[in-house]
């Protein structure tokens, strides 16, 4: 009850505090009124935007960005938060409140055998809203990794979810809602399976619709992504659908991936 009250009080602060609350308030101060996207955007954005920079679809209904190399992929992905901060200072109050509600719905239903002391890493966590909600719910060893966590981010460290620094079998749960930002989906899930403990969990949100300015992979059906997941995890614990997302909870890396 105390944990839920903490979550709710912070929701109100994030939703209604003029100019933002906490870390997000600091990001608002970094908005650049002189920034003009058409003029000032990074050169990589000339190639990669919502409708441009894509390869032709493969035989498995997957389509990837036509990156010249991995460095170009990294450069492109870093631009998302940089642009967001310069143009509008990060997420709005309403967006943050909506994300917190979504994350609470996910994390309040985690399996009972995942202890509050579990080591949980949120992948592609950006500014760390999901990490904060996990901590609000008592998972105090949760943290995030992102290519670009922004300045002075206490919740998210610099890291690449395609090439994690965590050692084999060291993590109790991974969570990610940025699957469509993966450079290669098969390698993406294999890397997450590698860092999980034998009975660890992987929780993923799969976007039903994709293909925006920074996504690096897209698919005709989320079932395509689900089938790739099954190559790397032993058991499906839960699958639920929403209008914009399908979320999947899996348990245990397959030995071939561990």
Please give a structural write-up.
The protein has 258 residues and is of the alpha/beta class. It has a seven-stranded mixed β-sheet with strand order 4-3-2-5-6-9-8. A two-stranded antiparallel ribbon has the order 1-7. Helix 7 links the parallel strand 2 and strand 3. Helix 1 runs antiparallel to helix 6 and helix 6 crosses helix 7. The longest helix is centred in the N-terminal third of the chain and has 19 residues. It is globular, with a radius of gyration of 18 Å. The mean pLDDT is 93.
Summary keywords:
alpha/beta, 258 residues, single chain, two-stranded antiparallel ribbon, Rossmann fold, globular, 7-stranded mixed β-sheet
What letter string, H or E per element, gives the SSE order?
HHHHEHHEHEEEHEEHEE
As a whole number of angstroms, the C-alpha radius of gyration is 18 Å
The backbone outline, from C-alpha atoms, is globular
End-to-end gap = 37 Å
Kindly give the count of domains.
Answer: 1
- In total, the number of strands is 9
CATH architecture: 3-Layer(aba) Sandwich
Return residue spans where pLDDT drops below 50 for at least 5 consecutive residues.
Answer: none
Main pleated sheet: 7 strands, mixed
Q: How are the strands of the largest sheet arranged? A: 4-3-2-5-6-9-8
Helical segment tally? Answer: 9
CATH topology descriptor = Rossmann fold
Which class of secondary structure composition applies to the elements? alpha/beta
Strand content: 15-25%
Q: Can you say what the CATH homologous superfamily is?
A: Vaccinia Virus protein VP39
């Amino acid at each position: 009850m105390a944990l839920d009250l903490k979550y709710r009080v912070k929701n109100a602060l994030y939703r209604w505090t003029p100019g933002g609350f906490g870390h997000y308030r600091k990001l608002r101060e970094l908005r650049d009124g002189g920034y003009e996207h058409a003029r000032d955007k990074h050169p990589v954005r000339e190639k990669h935007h919502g409708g441009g920079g894509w390869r032709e679809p493969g035989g498995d209904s997957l389509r990837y960005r036509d990156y010249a190399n991995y460095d170009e992929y990294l450069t492109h992905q870093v631009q998302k938060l940089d642009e967001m901060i310069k143009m509008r200072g990060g997420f709005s109050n309403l967006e943050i409140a909506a994300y917190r509600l979504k994350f609470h719905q996910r994390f309040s239903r985690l399996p009972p055998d995942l202890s509050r002391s579990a080591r949980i890493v949120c992948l592609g966590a950006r500014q760390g809203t999901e990490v904060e909600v996990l901590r609000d719910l008592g998972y105090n060893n949760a943290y995030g990794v992102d290519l670009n966590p922004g300045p002075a981010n206490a919740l998210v460290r610099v890291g690449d979810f395609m090439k994690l620094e965590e050692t084999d079998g060291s993590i109790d749960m991974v969570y990610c809602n940025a699957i469509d930002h993966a450079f290669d989906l098969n390698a993406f899930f294999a890397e997450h399976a590698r860092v999980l403990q034998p009975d660890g969990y992987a929780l993923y949100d799969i976007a039903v619709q994709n293909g925006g300015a920074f996504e690096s992979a897209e698919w005709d059906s989320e079932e395509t992504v689900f089938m790739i997941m099954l190559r790397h995890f032993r058991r499906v614990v839960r699958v639920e659908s929403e209008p914009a997302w399908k979320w999947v909870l899996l348990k245990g890396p397959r030995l071939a991936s561990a």
